[in-house]
Amino acid sequence: MAEPDTDLKELRGEFLREADAAFEKMFGKDGQNGLVTFTERETRACEAADELARWMMAKHVERDESGQALTATCPLCGGPAATCDPPDPDAMQAREITTRRGPIEYERAAHRCPRCRRIFFPLG
Length: 124
Known about the structure:
Blueprint: H1 4-27, H2 38-62, E1 71-73, E2 80-83, E3 92-99, E4 102-109, E5 111-113, E6 118-120
Antiparallel strand pairs: 1-2, 2-5, 3-4, 5-6
Helix pairs in contact: 1-2
């Protein structure tokens, strides 16, 4: 994993590119980007802001170390559970949650409880 300062610097650069794309969607080359009515302007601004909000939430959740942990406690029996096939890169699975700004996707480590024989994704 990259150093925290380097990692955040790269993430900031990614965010600035996303923000620049949102700005271009709103203002475009002519400064208005073909938006005429107030409703069109409001709709475009809200869509751009929601896209940025979803991007930030997805990145924030991905960085949450509780979703990457190799061990966890089973929510059913309280026993220890480990990630599914730790050497397997597929131990990280795409998940989707619905936020107030729309759906976001992120990756979480799937865990398996040997006693319950259930697969779950730790909360966090």
